[in-house]
């Protein structure tokens, strides 16, 4: 009992945003469910769907049960392919995570007022209002 369709679909692979490999066949997306020494078992990314594909370890189609309980995901596939291409291109030119964190911290320090060295100081304007622009500080007066 062979569930492979007479017209074998073209399959391709892309990476998810988390770096996991996804299989694309007939405008549907499959995630890797299990791997053995000879076979990779893929299942549809829609949890309620029972469609499955088996490939060998080299990614060649072995068996397919392509009965989906939902419409195809053509738009999702196009978006993920575009993100993957963009991701590869931008990764090559982006600074390292350490360099980015350093830049973010530098910007934060530039926005934070300096710590006062005496008790006589003016409270900076951003700290006198709430997030809804109400007066947070009514009186800025030192009691002696």
TrEMBL record:
Keyword Zinc: yes
Gene3D superfamilies: 2.20.25.240
Coiled coil start-end: none
Domain FLYWCH-type: 13-70
Pfam families: FLYWCH
Keyword tags: Metal-binding, Zinc, Zinc-finger
GO MF entry, a single one: zinc ion binding
UniProt xrefs under InterPro entries: Znf_FLYWCH
Record keyword Nucleotidyltransferase present: no
Name the UniProt record assigns to this protein: FLYWCH-type domain-containing protein
